[in-house]
Amino acid sequence: MTISFAHHNHGKGKVRVVKVFREEADLKGKFGEINEDVRHYNVQTILYGPVEESYTKGNNQKVISTDTQKNTVYCVARDNKFKSSEHFAVLLSQHFLKQYPDSVVHEAHITIEEDIWARVEVGGHKHGHAFKKTGPCQKKVVATCSRNADGGTALTLKCGVQNFTLMKTTNSSWCDFLRDEYTTLPDARDRLLGSSMQVEWEYSKEFVKGGLTTEFDWEEMVQRIEDSLTFTFCGPPGTGVASSGVQQTLHQMCYNALNDIEGLDSMWISAPNLHNIPFDFSKLGRVGHGDVYVATTEPHGLIEVKLVKRCTPQMIKSAL
């Protein structure tokens, strides 16, 4: 019998970084006030390397301490100019492979969750240095930098949003599904449809390379994707769009985003239902009017889908 490693890694989690952006060119706003910006990051570092002896023999000479990894996060945040969590994650992943040899680390996996702080508006004007936290939606970025056999490095970048919550009050049905002796759920010709979704997309390698060497606006890209997902879920104002089930809606959301927005290789959505069940007034001798519901999240349906796409170099170039 042989017992061997399936995998191993070590890192630091819950490294919370607040970064205040004080660019000289942006210090004076339209009304003469100080104009700053702020970001709140929750960083996780995971490193992979040939450090098996730290597990088998207690030899820690090649192990980058998790406290060192924490300090590195703050130093990279201090020493570099960046405008997005995407760029910050890439800088961190690349730093570990530049700082340490292959005998210590051969892959760095960086995850950043970003709390969104919006600029406060006072009297119709955006405040220069005051913010309010929005939510519960969070942005999530995953950057992985690994060494190639030829000595170079490969970079992948995934992004997404967590707790992306949408609801519509009509134009949704769930009918004609498989029935057997275990089925009690009736057809729903019209129902409330809601979900707090986890969404993740991966950028093509060519797109990432181009975006990091230009003044590409990664946050605008995220907004474009969110707008696409929202419009597909909701449909046009007034008329909306019919849904025959969460499966159909999720597929269309992924398909439209991949089809309309260049630079994306894949799109994944996990959608737990936010159930809203009509309250049963009959037990109280009353007739329901279809406007009062019991909100529940457990147990919930859980639907997931992932679509993939491959872009040509010309498509990538036109997107940047």
UniProtKB/TrEMBL annotation:
Binding residues for urate: 66-67, 191, 246-247, 273
Gene3D superfamilies per record: Urate Oxidase (3.10.270.10)
GO CC list: peroxisome
Annotated binding of 5-hydroxyisourate, by residue: 66-67, 191, 246-247, 273
Subcellular location(s) per record: Peroxisome
Catalytic residue positions: 12 (charge relay system), 66 (charge relay system), 275 (charge relay system)
GO biological process: purine nucleobase catabolic process; urate catabolic process
Residues given in the record as O2 binding sites: 66, 273
Entry keyword Disulfide bond: no
A GO term, aspect molecular function: urate oxidase activity
Catalytic activity: urate + O2 + H2O = 5-hydroxyisourate + H2O2
Key words, A-Z: Oxidoreductase, Peroxisome, Purine metabolism
EC annotation from Swiss-Prot or TrEMBL: 1.7.3.3
Pathway: Purine metabolism; urate degradation; (S)-allantoin from urate: step 1/3
Similarity-based family: Belongs to the uricase family.
PANTHER family according to UniProt: URICASE
Function field: Catalyzes the oxidation of uric acid to 5-hydroxyisourate, which is further processed to form (S)-allantoin.
NCBIfam families: urate_oxi
Protein name in UniProt: Uricase
Upper classification of the organism: Eukaryota, Sar, Alveolata, Dinophyceae, Noctilucales
